[in-house]
């Protein structure tokens, strides 16, 4: 636990993000012991200013949302977002949970990962607490070949959710253009379009308050330490200097994100792998 916190503190320093032990340590203790993956990530531009930690939940914690509420990490709510995790569990066999917390912003998301029980959009749209927008956009996913949902992220503070689609063979740039056009995104820059074509995950953002796809994101492995020469110096420091625990080169990813109003990206660096995460990534990237 001390080693993990020291790595978090060092990585936050690379990004000039303030790291308070009083804020981070209780969450680490509340969701330990660490049995699997830990990923560091950060965003650029207007979305910068925090270091996000994605941490695999210990197997002894059966209901991470109830656990987070009981510890005071998340507020209790009667909004449908509070029912979604329990309803997903009734629909599919969950293989692991992960939490997402900001060093500055605190706990915000829970990931429900089910790569051994892939789901379709029509099946997930039947879940009572699911945003209606998911089912209302089923035609969008069908038209663009987005079929298999492998994970859902639930953001309790923003009251949004993300279905993650597996896309192991990459994506034709024209398909990406079509997706972006449909959700109202202006013509993308060629550099980002080409990079997004190498993605192994595509995920969208929905809320309970709107019928539209609010955002679409493309995640790919980074094959070089810097995404673009236009990134802030701290992103370069993060991608070249954040600690990791495994042999060989650091495993880094980028997430290019589009909404009708803006375009930005996030970068992630794996500190350590969980067994299932490594198995999934090996199958995708081989």
Description:
A hairpin with a 4-residue loop joins β5 and β6. A ten-stranded antiparallel beta barrel has the order 1-2-3-4-5-6-7-8-9-10, surrounded by six helices. The protein has eleven helices and ten strands. The model has no long low-confidence stretch (mean pLDDT 92). It is of the alpha+beta class. The chain is globular. 33% of the residues lie in helices and 25% in strands.
The total beta strand count reads 10
Widest sheet, order of strands: 1-2-3-4-5-6-7-8-9-10
Q: Which structural category do the helix and sheet elements fall into?
A: alpha+beta
Low-confidence stretches: none
Helix content: 25-40%
Query: Which word captures the global form?
Result: globular
- The number of distinct helices, counting runs of at least 4 residues, comes to 11
Taking all residues together, what is the mean pLDDT?
92
String of helices and strands? HHEEHHEEHHHEEHHEEHEEH
Distance linking N and C termini: 32 Å
If you compute it from the alpha carbons, what radius of gyration comes out, rounded to the nearest whole angstrom? 18 Å
| Largest sheet report | 10 strands, antiparallel, barrel
Strand content: 15-25%
Characterize this entry briefly:
This protein is α+β, with helices and mostly antiparallel strands and 286 residues long.
What topology emerges from the helices and strands here?
Layout: H1 2-14, H2 21-31, E1 38-43, E2 52-56, H3 64-70, H4 81-91, E3 96-102, E4 106-113, H5 121-125, H6 132-136, H7 138-143, E5 149-155, E6 160-166, H8 173-182, H9 190-196, E7 201-207, E8 215-221, H10 233-241, E9 252-258, E10 263-272, H11 275-285
Antiparallel strand pairs: 1-2, 1-10, 2-3, 3-4, 4-5, 5-6, 6-7, 7-8, 8-9, 9-10
């Amino acid at each position: 636990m001390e080693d993990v916190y020291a790595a978090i503190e060092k990585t936050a320093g690379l990004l000039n993000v303030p790291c308070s032990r009083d804020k981070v340590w209780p969450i680490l203790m509340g969701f330990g012991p660490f049995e699997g993956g830990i990923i560091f990530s950060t965003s650029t531009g207007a979305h910068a200013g925090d270091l996000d930690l994605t941490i695999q939940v210990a197997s002894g914690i059966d209901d991470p949302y109830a656990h987070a509420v009981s510890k005071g990490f998340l507020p209790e709510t009667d909004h449908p977002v509070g029912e979604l995790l329990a309803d997903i569990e009734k629909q599919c066999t969950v293989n692991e949970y992960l939490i997402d917390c900001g060093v500055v912003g605190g706990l915000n998301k829970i990931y429900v990962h089910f790569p051994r029980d892939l789901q379709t959009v029509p099946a997930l749209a039947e879940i009572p607490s699911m945003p209606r927008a998911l089912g209302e956009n089923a035609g969008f996913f069908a038209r663009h070949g987005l079929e298999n949902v492998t994970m859902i992220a639930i953001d309790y503070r923003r009251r949004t959710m993300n279905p993650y689609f597996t896309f192991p063979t990459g994506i034709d740039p024209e398909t990406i253009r079509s997706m972006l056009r449909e959700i109202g995104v202006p013509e993308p820059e060629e550099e980002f379009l080409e990079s997004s074509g190498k993605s192994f995950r595509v995920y969208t953002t929905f809320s309970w308050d709107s019928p539209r796809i609010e955002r679409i994101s493309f995640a790919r492995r980074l094959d070089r330490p810097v995404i673009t020469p236009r990134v802030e110096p701290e992103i370069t420091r993060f991608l070249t200097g954040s600690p990791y625990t495994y042999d060989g080169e650091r495993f880094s990813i980028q997430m290019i994100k589009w909404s009708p109003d803006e375009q930005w990206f996030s970068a992630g660096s794996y500190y350590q792998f969980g067994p299932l995460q490594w198995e999934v990534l090996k199958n995708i990237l081989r």
